[in-house]
Amino acid sequence: MGPSERELLRRLEQIVRGTPWLLRVLETIRPLGLPDWYLAAGAVRNTVWDSLHGLATSGPLGDLDVIYFDRTNSWTTAQATLQAVLPEYRWEVTNQATVHQWQSSATGREILGYESIAAAVAGWPETATAVGVRLTPRGAMKFVAPFGLADLFTMTVRRGPMAPDPSAFDLRLRDKAWHLRWPQLTVVRGAG
Fold it and tell me: pLDDT: is 112 or 35 the higher one?
């Protein structure tokens, strides 16, 4: 039997707090006041996988995915603000309340709007990527991880069962080539 979800959350918080650039990024996002925001995807996943592989991380390997949930879509300047404050990083700020629109266009079929940030994250291509972290105004950490943290910490890459485009998983495996940096990954093919 592996560690409990509570133990994995504690471990994730230790890794995040022990990664200076990541903590700085979270502290930069927090004052924007984005509704139900998280730093998610590669910034979190890659940091954990680097830690588990004993690799030093001095910054993100790609863009920083900041997600939030706002049906009014009134936060259109957040990406420019973050880029101005920390220009050394590539920012990708996405309102998950509207992401179903481009998903519908990309898949050629109607994807219904998501009801929450957790529901939107559950639609991501891999379970290990469907993790986000944020800092509360008092400095506590909150997490979103609709599939839990086991796949992230066991370095298991599997298709998210709710992903609207199942082919995205195979494309990402090929394009990201994660196994080159993190050789201990286990890829589970087939249905999520």
Answer: 35
